[in-house]
Amino acid sequence: METRGSPEYDVFISYAHADRDWVAAFARRLGERGLTVAWDGELITLGDLIVVRVEEFVRASANGILVHSPASAGSAWVRNEYAAMMKRAIEENVRVIPVLIGDGPLPPLAGARAAADFRQERAARWDETFERVVRALRTPL
Fold first, then answer.
1. How far is CA 116 from CA 13, 40, 125, 135, in A?
2. Which residues pair with 37 in a beta bridge?
3. Is 41 exposed, middle or buried (0-12, 13-18, 19+ CB in 10 A)?
4. Res 121: pLDDT
5. What was the pLDDT predicted at 1?
6. Separation CA 132–CA 111 (nearest Å)
C-alpha cells in the first residue's frame, strides 16, 4: 500500500461492528477535536464496494487505530484491516494505536505498542486517556 501526497484523514479506525456504538462516540469526539476520521460508519454509502473503500481509508490515513475487544479479536474483517495497518506501520512508519475496550490478548505486533486503555476499570480516567490519543494522533513519528 502506497500513500501519495499528504494524508486525507488523520486516522483510520478498525473495529468490530458489535462495538459500533462505542466507536461512533469515540470518532465523533475525535472529530470535535479537529481530527479527520475514516471509519465505515460515516463514509461508506449504499452501493459502495466496501473492501475498496476500506483500502482507500487505510491508504489515505496518517495513523491507524485498532479497537480491541472480544468481538474484534474474532473478526476476519478486523484481522485484515489490522494486517494492512501494520504493513504500513512497518514499511511507512505510520503510527498504529491499540485502543482497548475489552479484554483478551492483542495480536503480537499490536501488543508491542503502547495502548490506550478504555476498559471499564479505567473509566474514571477516560478523558485523560482520550487526550493522550489525540496528542499521539497529532504528533508525527
1. 13, 21, 11, 12
2. 11
3. middle
4. 60
5. 40
6. 18
Q: How far is CA 92 from the centre of its chain?
A: 17
**pLDDT tens digits, one per residue of 93-111:** 999 999 999 988 888 888 8
Stretches where the chain sits below pLDDT 70 are 1-5, 43, 48, 120-123
Full DSSP string of 1-65? ----SS-SBSEEEE--GGGHHHHHHHHHHHHHTT--EE-HHHH--TT--HHHHHHHHHHTBSEEE
What is the predicted pLDDT for the residue at 31? 97
Alpha carbon distance 99, 103 (integer Å)? 11
- 20 in Cβ contact with 41 (< 8 Å): yes
Q: What is the pTM of this model?
A: 0.89
Other CB atoms closer than 10 Å to residue 88's CB: what's the count? 23
Q: Using the 8-state DSSP alphabet, how is residue 102 labeled?
A: S
- Length of the chain, please? 141
Strand partners, 61: 9
Instruction: Please work out, in degrees rounded to the nearest 5, the angle formed at the alpha carbon of residue 76 by the alpha carbons of 73 and 78.
Output: 60
